[in-house]
Amino acid sequence: MPFCPQCGVANPDSARFCDQCGAQLIPVPSKPASPSVQPVTSSGSTTGAPVSAGPSSCPQCGAGVIPGEAFCDNCGAPLLNYSRTAPPVAPDLPFPGAPPQPVYPPPQPATIQGGKPTPVPPPKPSIPSTAPVTPSPPVAPPIRNSLAGIRLRLRSGAVLTLPATTQAFIGRADPVSNFYPDIDLTAYGGLEHGVGRRHGRFIIQQGLVYYEDLDSTNGSFRNGIKLLPRQPQLLQYGDELRLGLLSFVVEIP
């Protein structure tokens, strides 16, 4: 009996194409079987499952066909007006119409080029230092023996230099009383700005530079703060001194 490799249906011995799917048949001599054809009634249907009788000859090649067959045994052409219930698929066949599954090669172990990798050592934990941090001591001003090199820079741009002595008076010259200070501010508007004749003095004490107001009428100011008379105040580079209304900057090298 011819055996259909597509759907597994057994066909008549004379069939070359499957009545179920139209595939070309493979003859199987070991299992001869003749299909049981149900008689067709006068109404054109079989006594079993309802089918349409169909044509008695193939519309493709004109060969005679058995009524109820779906495909021509001679050329395999489909016959018209055919319907039947598909028989069960043979259990020993693969699923009909299933595409072949792809075959993948087995996984291969990965290889590392260039030899073995160099192990990276773990980072060493940082150990906090327990040694106390000693702050750097403040830079002490240089020890001076005289006022030499100290400059007074007025706002007008004039620069006055103190003498190389341990003390120097600042004020205005007074020919009547025959008093001439070490630093005379007369030519820089001392009288108009309220500078006294003996307004104050610069002195060296313990190697440092000080300024002392000598009971002036209009007072002395260091960085905007009025100084008490007869109380020397330590000077630093960049301090602003104002005698009355006349201001200048102290530059100590």
Q: Provide the spatial order of strands within the biggest beta sheet.
A: 4-3-13-12-9-10
Total beta strands: 13
- What integer is the average pLDDT? 78
In angstroms, what separates the terminal alpha carbons? 126 Å
Shape verdict: rod-shaped
Rg over C-alpha atoms, rounded to the nearest angstrom: 63 Å
Unreliable residue stretches: 39-52, 82-86
The number of distinct helices, counting runs of at least 4 residues, comes to 0
Strand content: 15-25%
What do these coordinates show?
By secondary structure, the chain is mainly β. It is 0% helix and 19% strand. The chain has strands at 2-3, 26-27, 151-154, 159-161, 167-171, 183-184, 200-205, 208-213, 220-222, 225-226, 233-234, 240-243, 246-251. The chain has a 6-stranded antiparallel sheet, with no helix packed on it. Strands 6-5-7-8-11 form a 5-stranded mixed sheet, with no helix packed on it.
